[in-house]
Design brief:
This protein has a domain at 22-369: Hydantoin permease (Orthogonal Bundle). The longest helix has 31 residues, at 180-210. Helix 4 (65-93) runs antiparallel to helix 14, helix 6 packs antiparallel against helix 17 and helix 11 (225-249) packs across helix 20 (372-401). The protein is globular, with a radius of gyration of 23 Å. 71% of the residues lie in helices and 0% in strands. By secondary structure, the chain is mostly helical. The chain contains 25 helices and no strands. It has helices spanning 4-11, 35-46, 49-60, 65-93, 97-105, 111-139, 142-145, 160-177, 180-210, 214-217, 225-249, 251-254, 260-267, 269-292, 299-306, 309-331, 333-342, 349-362, 365-368, 372-401, 408-411, 428-438, 442-448, 457-464, 466-485.
Length: 502
């Protein structure tokens, strides 16, 4: 039975180009995520190969083990604040990220931030799926892996065999994606304890084989004080941008939370689980030096070295589960909802997810993963310049300008007199602040990818702190422009459809 607020909402004259079942506010019957289930979501997200890579890369670049863990934990504690703040409107109003973006960017302007977020999600979807394909490749007989089809083809950028494994894993994921949010919730709920168990087994194995963690604990920093700080800030930015994607579209999940308390408790799992998994990644990676005589930072290669048919099958199951839980929740929901928001009459969540998967192939993830340098400091730091200003503009609009009061009716209306119609459906202040927040980061990015040979040192510093710079510059600029225009009075809106969630 639908709640009274849902019945009232159905009675409203919503524009059909702005709403369908995937964009409609959730009712009380759909609020099923408890704090434990929200925390379980983070277990499934954190335990994965990219998180493992990220931890090891800091030590590879010269940090000590404790400096690497501290960098990761500090980054995720910082990120926890925008994560919880952005999750609040999702729980209070039951709206997804694309609908929330309408309040700050305009009814039509919301397509800009949602499609930028979708683009990053498609790239991540391809990266995670490629790693899953590597796991399948590991199971293949040695004769096949050494055949002609395993040799790289120049125009493809990889071997036909590895590409076939990638496509196999790509197809396998679609079965879960096809079940929608209910399937994702069940997957995350039941996979969390399995992933914790398998991660514990890997940690115990490394401890026993290496004779303790003494080797890891003996890893000291290879950096001078000045070298550490020059590495710390871009590493902090990279770690923040690692989950800045979810911090942006977290309303897609918190709209299903039972209460604000549940969403806050659930979000607190991020720094806890990320710190714990970082320790596992560093401990296991450092133990490989003692066990095998050389450092193996790639967990898939490590599992291939452990040997034993049963161990390999169990390992591949664990890796596949970790990849699927991360990939579907982090990299399918946002792009799918963005495409639904683009054309609710044509796109459904399933169609959006399918297009996301197709675009993941177009990103050619095997090229993005060519080196840890390109993965961490080009991919992660680079896209943080896009997501930082979007997040700050939305938070400034929701908390400082509108005082957390939104008109649900106007979020689904193309009425020129609506609160979020602005100029033809676009909020030029938000779009301008977004552009100005991104522009100063571009020279540093162009130097990083090799297009520019040299840029002034100031642009390098800005790029190394891309998320911080773009987040604060865009947010402050938007607040000033909006206050000057008098938008601060919009917080007087009183919406009769507020769900009974504070």
């Amino acid at each position: 039975m639908a709640s009274s607020s849902q019945l009232q909402f159905d009675d409203l004259d919503s524009d059909p180009t702005l709403i369908n079942d995937d964009l409609r506010p959730t009712n009380s019957d759909q609020r099923t995520f408890s704090g434990l289930e929200m925390a379980s979501l983070w277990v499934g997200l954190v335990v994965g190969v990219p998180s493992y890579y990220l931890a090891g890369s800091l030590v590879d670049l010269g940090m000590s083990w404790w400096q690497g863990i501290a960098t990761v934990v500090v980054a995720n504690i910082i990120l926890l604040f925008p994560l919880v703040l952005t999750g609040h409107p999702g729980t209070r109003y039951g709206i997804p990220f694309p609908v929330l973006a309408r309040s700050s960017f305009g009814i039509r302007g919301a397509h800009i931030p949602t499609l930028l977020r979708a683009l990053v999600g498609c790239g991540w979807y391809g990266i995670e799926t490629w790693i899953g394909g590597e796991a399948i490749f590991l199971l293949l007989p040695k004769a096949i892996k050494e055949s002609l089809v395993s040799r790289p083809v120049s125009w493809l950028g990889t071997s036909p065999l590895e590409f076939a494994c990638f496509i196999t894993f790509w197809v396998a994921q679609l079965g879960i994606v096809w079940k929608g949010m209910d399937g994702i919730r069940e997957l995350e709920k039941y996979s969390a304890p399995i992933l914790i168990f398998l991660t514990s087994c890997l940690l115990i194995w490394s401890y026993v084989k290496a004779g303790g963690f003494s080797h890891m604990l003996s890893l000291s920093s290879r950096l001078s004080s000045s070298e550490f700080w020059s590495l710390f800030f871009p590493s902090l930015t990279a770690n923040i941008s690692f989950w800045a994607t979810l911090a942006l579209n977290i309303p897609d999940f918190t709209r299903y939370a039972k209460s604000q308390r549940d969403q806050i408790i659930g979000q607190s799992g991020l720094p806890i689980f990320m710190g714990a998994f970082t320790f596992v990644g560093l401990a296991v990676t450092s133990s490989t030096k003692v066990i095998f005589g050389n450092v193996i930072s790639n967990p898939i290669q490590l599992l291939g070295q452990i040997g034993g048919v049963f161990t390999k099958i169990l390992s591949i199951f664990g890796i596949s589960l970790a990849i699927v839980t991360t990939n579907i929740a982090a990299n399918v929901v946002a792009p799918a909802n963005a495409l639904v928001n683009l054309s609710p009459s044509y796109f459904t969540f399933r169609k959006g997810a399918l297009l996301t998967a197709l675009l993941g192939i177009a990103f050619q993830p095997w090229r993005l993963l060519q080196s840890s340098e390109s993965f961490v400091y080009t991919w992660l730091v680079g896209y943080s310049a896009l997501l930082g200003p979007i997040g700050s503009i939305i938070l400034v609009d929701y908390y400082l300008i509108r005082r957390a009061n939104l008109s649900i009716k106007d979020l689904y209306s193309l009425n020129p007199g609506g609160a979020y119609y602005y100029s033809g459906g676009y909020n030029l202040a938000a779009i301008g602040a977004l552009i100005i927040g991104i522009l100063p980061v571009i020279p540093g990015f162009l130097q990083k990818v090799g297009i520019l040979s040299r840029v002034p040192n100031a642009y390098t510093i800005i790029y190394n702190n891309a998320w911080f710079f773009s987040f604060f510059s865009a947010g402050i600029l938007y607040w000033i422009i909006s206050s000057f225009k008098g938008n601060q009075n919009s917080h007087q809106l009183k919406d009769p459809l507020l769900p009974n969630i504070p």
